[in-house]
Specification:
Length: about 400
């Protein structure tokens, strides 16, 4: 970036100031890659009684069978004590469990130590989330990823970042952008800059640092447009096509060449043949080397995705309730994951070229001179979005 150092680029925390820490479930069993298993786990919990139910639940300081909590915003989970719960399982919802791994979660506040209700209040149609990946010095992979479903903020390297909703209110209202920034960028670039365009630029240009994610900005209109267009392509892939399933060109699409075994317990890659071996017998090809090697925070995404579906669970635990055989849906998801990672890797060189020559920079100092920074304290706090009563503990309505 000619004429400006990395440390002069503004922090993402100053561009999208409201952020939320990752969720802390406190127990693993309410989340998993298979919704039917979650319902079976719930059923096993409510059938158990006394000490058996407590052992299955796995109480913590934040949650026991007798903890009283309000509903998760937007979901009709129970608010009575779990010790006397006997009803059906709340319908599991999609959640992003770390990079590129959409799993399922039982949306019941009683099961989650720290559920971050402020995120649940603004999730839904029109919302997007920028998820900072934990910074690992020298590690490969993107510094920020986007999600359309609520993310738990988990980092594969164990160094959690922050979750930044694109909008502060439900329905895609009130951008979570430092006041005045969009208007300032619009004036500098000579065209309207929206919150979604800013997010696209962030996905293209953001880099990790010990101080937090930094976002080099440019005053060059042509460079900005190219960066936003590239970021929109990255965004569509990270949203799994945003309505249209991503595909590799014919001849490069991965297929199952030999059926996957019922219980695959290993994953191996043959770079020369572009073959992914799943267990002893399963074969998927072609799998580009770039997809197999794609990393986030220094961790290979495909290996991590597979491990989370095959790692051993303790006997007698609710986590041990899982599919008896490898579901076909997981095979489809694995093929889609390989496709997305391959397409993202193809965009890497274009990203590198663009960020290496950003043209006239907009620095953090320049934003302070323009009166955009420092960020007002109110912009770092969640907006007041309650327009209805939320059910509190034991069925009582919370006071608003």
């Amino acid at each position: 970036m000619p004429g400006v150092t990395h440390d002069e680029a503004p922090l993402l925390a100053d561009l999208m100031p409201w952020s939320v820490a990752p969720l802390r479930p406190g127990r693993g069993w309410p989340m998993g890659p298979d919704p039917a298993s979650l319902k079976a786990r719930w059923g096993a919990l409510v059938r158990a009684e006394g000490p058996d139910r407590e052992a299955l639940f796995r109480p913590t300081r934040a949650r026991t069978l007798h903890t009283a909590v309000a509903q998760l915003p937007g979901h009709a989970g129970g608010t009575g004590r779990l010790a006397r719960e006997s009803g059906p399982c709340p319908e599991p919802v999609r959640i992003l469990h770390g990079p590129f791994d959409e799993q399922w979660l039982i949306p019941d506040h009683r099961l989650l130590d720290v559920a971050r209700p402020e995120l649940w209040r603004v999730s839904g149609e029109g919302q997007l989330f920028a998820v900072e990946q934990g910074y690992v010095p020298g590690a490969a992979g993107p510094a920020v990823l986007a999600s359309g479903v609520l993310p738990d903020g988990r980092s594969p390297a164990g160094r959690p970042g922050r979750i930044r909703p694109l909008f502060r209110r439900p329905g895609g209202l009130e951008p979570n952008v430092t006041p005045g920034l969009l208007a300032h960028l619009s004036d500098v670039l000579g065209r309207e800059v929206t919150a979604r365009a800013l997010l696209a630029w962030v996905l293209t240009a953001c880099t990790g640092s010990a101080a937090g994610c930094r976002v080099p900005l440019t005053s060059d209109t042509e460079v900005w447009e190219r960066g936003v267009e590239l970021g929109q392509r990255l965004l569509r892939l990270q949203l799994r096509g945003d309505g249209e399933r991503p595909k590799l060109p014919g001849g490069r699409r991965p297929y199952v060449r030999a059926p996957l075994p019922a219980r695959p317990d290993s994953l191996a890659y043959d770079a020369e043949k572009e073959v992914l071996r799943v267990g002893e017998e399963g074969v998927i090809s072609p799998v580009p080397r770039e997809a197999w090697e794609y990393e986030v925070s220094g961790v290979r995404v495909v290996e991590r995705w597979f491990a989370l579906r095959t790692e051993a669970a303790g006997a007698g635990t609710l986590e041990a309730i899982r599919p008896a055989t490898w579901p076909q849906t997981w095979t489809s998801e694995l093929l889609e994951l390989i496709t997305i990672l391959a397409l993202l890797a193809e965009l890497g060189p274009e990203q590198a070229r663009l960020t290496a020559s950003l043209g006239a920079p907009l620095t953090a100092t320049g934003l302070r001179t323009a009166g955009i920074l420092p960020v007002p304290d109110a912009a770092r706090r969640p907006a007041s979005v309650l327009d209805h009563h939320e059910e509190g503990p034991d069925g009582q309505f919370a006071l608003i």
